[in-house]
Description:
Number of helices: 4
Structural class: mainly alpha
Oligomer: single chain
Number of strands: 2
Amino acid sequence: MNIFRTRKIKYSHAKAYAKKRGIPWHFNYPTWWRIWCESGLWEMRGIKRDQYVMARFGDEGPYASWNVRICLSGENVSEAQLGKIRSSAHCLKISKRMTGNKNWTHMRRNENGQFDAHNPTDVLSNCS
């Protein structure tokens, strides 16, 4: 498969995923590609924490050239979770799901809400 076709497929997937989530999409392919190209991070894109994504500012509004940035996936996820209050039932569900996960001890947030393996603050600290 040629590179242009691969990029067009990635564009189509991003557009379809935004639609599935009910988020307006105000990009055409050339504008979307320009943002990725100018970032220099296309080859490092992905959904893993240390890969890059196209994220909306404040996780609000449409996907549009004036409302997106390229950032680390982990940063985007952390930003989206800031200020959310979880019910005790939800926290219990998370705790049960993470039981036995050797990475659980590394999933701590610092005062800015970012994951920080060296901060002793509990992930479940914003549970009601």
